[in-house]
Every structure is written in C-alpha cells, then in structure tokens.
Amino acid sequence: MSTWCSNSAKLLLSVYVMSCLLGACAGDFYQDMEITWGDHRAKILNGGQLLTLSLDKASGSGFQSKHEYLFGRIDVQIKLVPGNSAGTVTAYYLSSQGPTHDEIDFEFLGNLSGQPYTLHTNVFTQGKGNREQQFHLWFDPTKAFHTYSLLWNPQRIIFLVDNIAIRVFNNLEKIGVPFPNKQAMRVYSSLWNADDWATQGGRVKTDWSKAPFTAYYRNFNAINVCDINTSSSSSSSSPSCLNNNQGLDAPGRNKLRWVQSKYMIYNYCSDLKRFPHGLPPECKRSRFL
Ligand SMILES: *[C@@H]1O[C@H](CO)[C@@H](O)[C@H](O)[C@H]1NC(C)=O
Ligand SMILES: *[C@@H]1O[C@H](CO)[C@@H](O)[C@H](O)[C@H]1NC(C)=O
C-alpha cells in the first residue's frame, strides 16, 4: 500500500481532529480552496467561513480545492442564485485530469422566479459520461443553505442532498463498467452563463438586468479521504479511506425511492430513444442506479 494511509497519515489525522476540536476544521475556504477565475467575482469572506461566486455579463467565476482526494465524503453547503436565475448554471463537482478523467457532477440549472431549479447529475469514468439523472428539489434551494454531499468509496458513489441519497452509482467493474477508483480528484465549482441550453432547453435567456448573480458556499468538509497531497501539513488522510464501504440502510433506500419516484425528472437508464441498441450495462443491474 502507498504511504497515504500509513502511520504518518494517522498522526496527521489526529492533528486534524485536534484542530477540529479547537474549532478550525471545517469550512476554512482560505485553507481548502483557491479562486481560479473570475477575478473579483469570487470572494472568500468572514475569515474563510463564506465563499461567494458571481456572474455578470462579462464573466462567471470559479474555485477549486487545493487538495486532491481519493474516496471520502465531501460535503458543502450551498445557497443558490435567488430570483430569476434562468440561464445560470452553478456547477459543483469532483474531477481528475486528462483525456480518461473521472468526474462526479452536481449542476444546478437556474430558472425563472418561482420555477424550480433542476439538479443535474452525471458520472464520468475514464473520460466517458452520458449517465445523466436530473431532479427537482423538495425545497427552494435559494432560500437557505442546504448540504450537498458526495460519498465515494471503492464500492459506490452516493449523491446526497441534506443527507438524503438521491442517486447511487455502484461499482460494477465485474460486469465491465469502469468505476472511478484509480485517479484522485479535486473539487471544482463555478457559476457561469449557459443560456444556450440550461433553462427549459435554452428557450429562457439570462436576464442581465438582474446581474450580478451570486451563489454562496459554506462549511466545506472532506472526511475519510485519502488526501494524496503528502507534502502538505494540513493533510488529513484517514486510515479508513480505503476500506470504507458505507452504503444505504433500509430507511436510506426508502428515501432514495421516494426522491426517485417523486422528484426525478430525467434518467438516462430509462431513455430507450437515446439508447436504441440497448441501455448501458449498469442500467440493467438495479432499479435504483
Ligand atoms: C498540496 O497542498 C498545497 C498546500 O495546501 C497546495 O498548494 C498544493 O496545490 C497541493 N497539491 C496537490 C497536488 O493537491
Ligand atoms: C424550469 O421550470 C420549468 C417549468 O416548471 C420546468 O419544466 C423545468 O424543469 C425547470 N428547470 C429548468 C432548468 O428548465
């Protein structure tokens, strides 16, 4: 095994836990993130507790994590662009680099005032995506912060909203479906204009008189991660990062069914028109992928 989950990682973990007890663990955006584009449109505020992204006619903005992660549970709280957010997309995702990259996506597609956001999800393995599932939410995501989490372990990826699983992507390597388990990923987020496709299929355009559009982030937290950045003293690899196989218990599966039956608006696994020669193999294995 590599050095990530070794004794020195345990030592780093205990340093991390201690700093948590001292109140400095989650949500220090100065420590965890760097602003990557958009200049003054992206801001870290309140001593690192709050991050805001904004979009105006000239540009959007974005940030990425300083660290790369392999597996773990990665949480963040987001309050989305309020009011008329049509045409805007707030993307929050994990991704590795290169032509055979892996990627796990949340994308929030804005809408006219009073119309529901669409939460678009996708999983790319070895450069190939085409695994979209879309949802409406059971709350207004612009009124308050809600928690969006990715639980990623060697067995499965679970997308959670306020701790409710909305999607599970199982490791089905045994039937030939690639699973992201070899490439570490960074967290990325951006707010940008996508009014050519995002809202009601591109029919509703961004209303620039409402700009700037702003999304708010707080309480970023990565736990049980194999942080491959061994050179960093704030590294927090957990010894359990590789052998955590957490799945859903019966109540968790019931909630997943509730979300998928009431709030799912698109599932590639039931799009026979798109896959006339047969659905992707992972679709046949389980009703609740
Ligand atoms: C490692 O951590 C340092 C300091 O936090 C950061 O600047 C650097 O980009 C990180 N490298 C990777 C590969 O995550
Ligand atoms: C916007 O609202 C319409 C009408 O309620 C809905 O069909 C659509 O899914 C919503 N989201 C987007 C991104 O268009």
List keywords for this structure.
289 residues; mainly beta; Jelly Rolls; nine-stranded antiparallel β-sheet; seven-stranded antiparallel β-sheet; 4 helices; 13% helix; disordered N terminus
Can you offer a commentary on this structure?
- It is a single chain.
- The protein is mainly beta and 289 residues long.
- The protein has helices at residues 7-21, 29-32, 250-262, 281-285, and strands at 33-37, 42-45, 50-55, 61-70, 72-79, 88-95, 103-109, 118-124, 133-135, 146-152, 156-161, 164-170, 185-193, 213-223, 226-227, 264-267.
- The chain is built from four helices and 16 strands.
- The strands form two sheets. Strands 1, 4, 6, 7, 8, 9, 13, 15 and 16 form a nine-stranded antiparallel sheet that branches. Strands 2-3-14-5-10-11-12 form a seven-stranded antiparallel sheet.
- Strand 6 and strand 7 form a beta hairpin.
- The radius of gyration is 19 Å and the shape is globular.
- One 2-acetamido-2-deoxy-beta-D-glucopyranose (NAG) binds at residues 66-68, 229, 231-232, 234.
- One 2-acetamido-2-deoxy-beta-D-glucopyranose (NAG) binds at residues 109, 111, 115-116, 118, 198-200.
Overall mean pLDDT stands at: 89
Distance between the termini: 31 Å
**Main beta-sheet strand count, sense and barrel state:** 9 strands, antiparallel
Secondary structure tally, helices = 4
Strand content is 35-45%
Provide the helix percentage.
10-25%
Q: Radius of gyration in whole Å, from Cα? A: 19 Å
Q: Can you write the helix and strand succession as a string?
A: HHEEEEEEEEEEEEEEEHEH
**What is the CATH C-level name?**
Mainly Beta
Low-confidence stretches: 1-24
Dominant shape: globular
CATH architecture descriptor text = Sandwich
What's the β-strand tally? 16
* Bound compounds: 2-acetamido-2-deoxy-beta-D-glucopyranose
Would you tell me which CATH topology applies?
A: Jelly Rolls
Structural class: mainly beta
Instruction: Give the tally of structural domains.
Output: 1
